[in-house]
Amino acid sequence: MWRALFLAIGISLIILGVECLAVGKVTFKAYGKPEKVVQKTLQAPPPGPARRREFVVGDHAPWSLMGLGAVVIIYAFDLPRRLKG
Question: Least crowded by CB within 10 Å, which of 13, 56, 69, 77?
């Protein structure tokens, strides 16, 4: 069971690292209720100020994530030997 957990974590870290190689910046949009609607008409209310968060991926992030994922996978393969004693 522990081996499967560590394998899943390691593979997820490697996939996240590969994704970070492909993108330079990620923009998150916050969803929520509109703050106030002036009138009930057939037209949509004017859009309010968009709350966005940006995450800029550093140059070291993809390689660090992939390296950490590889170390976790190697640990997962070594884990059964460690548990036996």
Answer: 56
Mean pLDDT of 76-83: 81
Angle at which helix 2-22 crosses helix 61-84, to 10 degrees, equals: 170
DSSP state of 35: S
Residue carrying structure tokens 């929520």:
32
**Segment 40-53, tens digit of pLDDT:** 556 665 555 667 78
Amino acid in the structure at residue 61: A
For residue 23, count CB atoms less than 10 angstroms from its CB and return exposed for 0-12, middle for 13-18, buried for 19 or more.
Answer: exposed
Question: What backbone phi and psi angles, to 5 degrees, belong to 41?
Answer: -130, 180
25 — alpha (psi -120 to 50), left (phi > 0) or beta? beta
Distance CA 45, CA 36 (A): 9
